[in-house]
Amino acid sequence: xxxxxxxxxxxxxxxxxxxxxxxxxxxxxxxxxxxxxxxxxxxxxxxxxxxxxxxxxxxxxxxxxxxxxxxxxxxxxxxxxxxxxxxxxxxxxxxxxxxxxxxxxxxxxxxxxxxxxxxxxxxxxxxxxxxxxxxxxxxxxxxxxxxxxxxxxxxxxxxxxxxxxxxxxxxxxxxxxxxxxxxxxxxxxxxxxxxxxxxxxxxxxxxxxxxxxxxxxxxxxxxxxxxxxxxxxxxxxxxxxxxxxxxxxxxxxxxxxxxxxxxxxxxxxxxxxxxxxxxxxxxxxxxxxxxx
Length: 292
Prior knowledge:
By secondary structure, the chain is α+β, with helices and mostly antiparallel strands.
């Protein structure tokens, strides 16, 4: 069996930056175990599987598809960058004729649309809470393995996503404080075994001057519990960050930078219906076929 596969760098307009995702187009039913084996073989933070929902569906003409995401170790309920990559394959490679695509996922229906040179994703918006019970987890995770001696200004927890958000102090004037931070994500696995945390977000308020002026906030994201020591640019983390920074900054539209080694930029717009639009660019870097 031949399965068309693509590698797309998401949230960037340049190859070899942003966040790479593999995208597989499934014409037929795929054995459950093969999803995991293919994701492990691709060995990227996410491999997306687009499947036809009905026998008569067509990747060029249909507007609704099934979509699943797998890390090298397990399936996840939401992945923004692999959804953007999936939409890019359908819009730009399959030349899908629809203006809006709908994906049926574990997180409900997600929509993607083309707006000039960006793909806009309609994603859930996840709230964060200053839960006292998470303070202990914070010190076990961020103090020892993540932020070291840096000052933490705020701590929030997203129960819907099991993501812990750690905001560094506004006193740090340089975004590079976050970029240059040496994080030992492998230690998170021994520090947190309760299952209450599946991802750690480190974030810093944007600055009005310097190399990356104009960004409202910066972030980095770590998910070793899902086999990802550091995810370069993370749409699902920004579904959490968007609600937090909108509250903090009093803004509905924001520009974000995830300052990992590869780096990527996200345009954010909170919607009146309680969801969030996250937009990014992309670059297709590989086309081929898996032989199974």
